[in-house]
Amino acid sequence: MYFVFLKVILFVQFILIFSQVESVNSVYYIGFDIIFNISLALFLMLFFVVEKFHGVDVYDRYIVSAAGSFILFNVMTGSIPKFLSNFGISLPSWWPVQKG
User: Fold this and answer.
1) Are the CB atoms for 36 and 6 separated by under 8 Å?
2) 27-50 and 2-18 are packed helices; what angle lies between their axes, rounded to 10 degrees?
3) Separation of first and last alpha carbons in the chain
4) How deeply is 30 buried, as exposed, middle or buried, from its count of CB atoms within 10 A (0-12, 13-18, 19+)?
5) Which of 2, 49, 69, 76 is the most buried (most CB within 10 A)?
6) Per-residue tens of pLDDT for the chain, all 100 residues
7) Given this model, what pLDDT does residue 100 score?
8) 46 is a domain residue
């Protein structure tokens, strides 16, 4: 049900951006992008490691799980700094990317 809700919000965002009511630099779009990508990343990381699929090699499952960690890395280094910079929040000096 959660992913169906995310799909509906994604569709609404798609229409708003194409109708030029909202831009991809909007706080709402960036916030939804963070939520969607974190949800997808956690799903890929956890589901494909925990569940056993017939016909899918164990190494293929680890590759899909690694794809989830790459999505999460992209959120942490791209979307979150961009989102926080809209509010004037500076990131700590040890954060890999300071501005999105």
Assistant:
1) yes
2) 150
3) 31
4) buried
5) 76
6) 888 898 898 889 889 889 988 888 888 889 999 999 999 999 888 887 777 777 778 788 888 888 999 999 999 888 888 898 888 887 787 777 766 5
7) 54
8) yes
In a domain, 41, yes or no: yes
Residues present in the chain in total: 100
pLDDT at 98: 61
What domain range is 30 assigned to? Answer: 24-100
- Is 16 domain-assigned? no
* Pairwise CA distance, residues 28 & 38, whole Å: 15
**Lookup result for tokens 């700094």:** 81
Helices (H), 19-88: 27-50, 58-74, 80-85
* CA gap 78, 33 in Å, rounded: 11
State residue 37's pLDDT score: 93
